Every structure is written in structure tokens, then in C-alpha cells.
Amino acid sequence: MTIGDRGAAMPDVTAFKAAIGARRCTIGVIGLGYVGLPLVLRFGEVGFRVVGFDIDAAKVQQLNAGHSYIQHVPSPRVRALVDERRFEATADLKRLAEPDAIIICVPTPLTAHREPDLRYVETTADAVAAVLRRGQLVCLESTTYPGTTEEVVLPRLEAGGLRVGHDFFLAFSPEREDPGNAHFDTATIPKVVGGVTADCLALATTLYEQAIKQVVPVASTRVAEATKILENVYRAVNIALVNELKIAFERMGINVWDVIEAAKTKPFGFQPFYPGPGLGGHCIPIDPFYLTWKAREYGVTTRFIELAGEVNAGMPAYVIHRLMDALNERGKALKGARVLVLGAAYKRDTDDPRESPGLEIMEDLLQKGALVHYSDPHLPRLPFGRRHKIDLASVTLSAASIAAYDAVLLVTDHSSFPYELIQRHASLIVDSRNAFRARGLSGDNVVPA
Ligand SMILES: NC(=O)c1ccc[n+]([C@@H]2O[C@H](COP(=O)([O-])OP(=O)(O)OC[C@H]3O[C@@H](n4cnc5c(N)ncnc54)[C@H](O)[C@@H]3O)[C@@H](O)[C@H]2O)c1
């Protein structure tokens, strides 16, 4: 349906809610990535017509041909919706006038100076503003600092003369996608929603309730934005804490994973977090710094966030240091050593290389003169990333290929790695995930890192 247009009277909120409930409206999703694509599928599968918008023409073409380009999003789900004409992708942002509800899922990275890079949100808001019509609902999902919806998106949408809460509606609902999580998906992860006005909140809540089991309305867009930041800061700080404890305990001859396993038997007041080779992914290494930047505007220093960032950012170097020590004990220098890095994706059993500590570790090892290869069943070839320039193909693991390296460095503990085979044939294993010990494979050649 079309709830209104640029020249029509004020939109009827009750009629809009009824149209959403009856699936008589079209949903537009901007940004068909790890967040946007699962959302498209969920809304399509509950009966909505969905138009997906992306500036990447290759993704648009692939999706319209029924192919998913994300490993954990199965192509048959995309193909079914395309075949039923319930989903189509386009790079033509002028068609943003078509949907009644628009959901924005574009990237929110950091600049080289670790400041918020809102250019994708800004250009998307401008594209929506260029065609905005009466009655449209716009929801921002990209993770960002509190205030973005009302300070950055709202003025752009109102620039053409339409007013929020009267002519169009605006809300913020943080995405909580956890790719690869076997227990929770888009439909079952509760969704927090904040609206600019009461009608904005009511409409956005009605929309999400059609596709998501539990919707949690909150007082404002700022509360919704801050909720996502709290969740990610909580993880960043707690991961930094166990990373710091790992280093301290290691000097004392105590294995931190043993300590966490024991501590987690406490039935209250403790939640386990695990150390690793450094943070990765689109969220935890980035989002906390959105708040740090915003807090400066209010004269506040977010010391916990900065300290956690410092500790976590030091982990790749710590892992390399452990590798250098272990090689040294075996009479070898890192320079000239053959090192096989296991895992290039940042997270177990996923194909996502964004912000992966594995890439940083490989670059550092190459700079130090090591001969570096990698193996990752989910990433057969390393992309030329924006920051990382490594051009390598994944090594197939066999007794002979494993034995050919001076050291194997485990960065990402994919379930499908042949751990026993590796332990039997590697001369040295530096394990940053406790993956070998957890499987009862703790020979002399396994060093924790
Ligand atoms: N990946 C996750 O697990 C996750 C979880 C929670 C929140 N988030 C947040 O969700 C947002 C999106 O993340 P993602 O992981 O889906 O990113 P992504 O890089 O996988 O996808 C973003 C997509 O947006 C497209 N795009 C960029 N600019 C555009 C524009 N102007 N118009 C149309 N399309 C455009 C890109 O081509 C890309 O396909 C970010 O703010 C992120 O922090 C991500």
C-alpha cells in the first residue's frame, strides 16, 4: 500500500498499523550485508514484499539470481523469495520512494584516527530524504553513538519540509545479529526499539513484532542507541579483563582457561568471558569508540573503554611474542621461520574476516621476516582488504603440509580443523584459544598463548 505521498494529508497511523499487520505494505532494507540480508529473509518469509537496496552491484546481481554470498545464509532461502516475487534487490536508490517502511543497515566503521565514520549513514539518509514521502517509516539499525538518529538522520529527512511524527516516522532499533549462533537467529533475538515520537515508536514496534518474537520498546532513540553500546562495551571490557589475567596467570604458571572453567561453576554473579588473540568483527573492536568520541563532547573521559581498547589491541603482539619465545627455545629465530596461521576469520566457524586479528598477526609476522601461510576452511583465499594487503590461498592440511612448518599458530578455533592430525605432525603449536588442551591434546609441542 501507499500510506501517503509528498502532497497528501497527514498519514493515518491506525491504517498504517493495520496495513503492517495485514502484510499490505512493502519493506525496504538498505545495506544487504551480514545484518540486512537475514532481516530481508525474515520479513520476506513472514509474508512481506521486500526490496533490498545496496550500492554493491555485484551483490545485487547475485541476490537477484537467488545466490547468497554469506556462508551461513543459505541460497535456497534467497531463491525461494526471489521465485515467489517477494524479494528483489536493486542498486537504484531512487526506488526508496516505493517501500512504506525503510530499514537502514549500512556500515558504521571508524576512521584511521579511530573516530566515528558516519559517511554511510549520512549518504543513506540523504538518499532517503531525496525521495521521502508522507507516511513512510524509517528505522536506523546501524550501531552508533547516542544521538545519531536525531542529530544526524532526522535533520536530513526534515530538510525537504516534511516533519517527523506528522508526515513521516523515525526510529532506532539496534541490530543484535550473531552470525553462526546455533541458538538464536533474527526471529528469536529480542529487538529493542526507540522512536522519535510516540507514533514513531508504536509503528516501529508494530513492524518488528511481525517478524521478531520479542520487541522491547524503550523511552527514546538515544536509549536504544545507548543499549547497543552498553552491550558491546560490556563485552570489550570483560574480554580485556580476561586477556590481562591470562598474561598475569601465565607468568604464575596458571592456565587461565582452567580458572575460568572453575569460576563458571558459581551459579550466580559470574559470566565467563574468554581470552584470545585480539578482538575482531564489525562490532566489539569498533562500537565502544563511538561512545568515547561522543562522550568527549560532554567533557567525559571513558577510561574503562580506552583501557580495554589498549589491552585488547595489544593481544596480537602478545601472541607473536609467545611464538617468538617458543621458537627461540627451540633454537630458531622468527626471521626466516615457516609459520602456518590457523584461522583467518575473526570468529569460529564463520567466513567473516573483518577486523580479524589473524590478518594483523600475519602482516606483523611477514614484516618480521617470517614465511607465512594460512589455513582456513571458510576463507579459501584472502581478500585484498582495505587495511590488509595479504594475497594468499588457504593451505590444505595434511600430515606432510603440517610437518613442513616450524610453527603452527592457532588464531581461530574452527570446529572442522583436524586437531589430532595437527598435534601429531606439527613441530610446534602456539595455541591462542586453548583449543588443543580442551580436546585433551596437550603434548610437549603445544604452547598456550
Ligand atoms: N555483522 C554483525 O554481526 C553485526 C551485529 C550487530 C550490529 N551490526 C551493525 O550493523 C551495521 C551493518 O553491519 P553489517 O555487518 O551488516 O555490514 P556489511 O558490511 O556486512 O553490510 C553493509 C552493506 O551495506 C552496503 N552499503 C554501504 N553503503 C551503502 C549505501 N549508501 N546504500 C546502500 N547500501 C550501502 C554495503 O555494500 C554492504 O553490502 C553496522 O552498523 C554494524 O555495526 C553488525
Architecture blueprint of SSEs:
Elements: H1 13-21, E1 26-30, H2 36-45, E2 49-53, H3 57-64, H4 75-83, E3 87-90, E4 101-104, H5 119-131, E5 137-140, H6 148-158, E6 169-172, E7 191-195, H7 198-209, E8 215-217, H8 221-251, H9 256-263, H10 287-297, H11 303-313, H12 315-329, E9 338-342, H13 357-367, E10 371-375, H14 399-403, E11 407-410, H15 419-425, E12 429-431, H16 435-438, E13 446-448
Parallel strand pairs: 1-2, 1-4, 2-3, 4-5, 5-6, 7-8, 9-10, 9-11, 11-12, 12-13
Antiparallel strand pairs: 6-7
Helix pairs in contact: 1-7, 5-6, 8-10, 8-11, 12-13
Explain what you see.
By secondary structure, this protein is an alpha/beta fold. The protein contains 16 helices and 13 strands. The protein has an eight-stranded mixed β-sheet with strand order 3-2-1-4-5-6-7-8, sandwiched between helices. A five-stranded parallel β-sheet has the order 10-9-11-12-13. Helix 5 (119-131) packs parallel to helix 6 and helix 8 (221-251) packs across helix 11 (303-313). It is elongated. The termini are far apart. The mean pLDDT is 94. Nicotinamide-adenine-dinucleotide (NAD) binds next to helix 5.
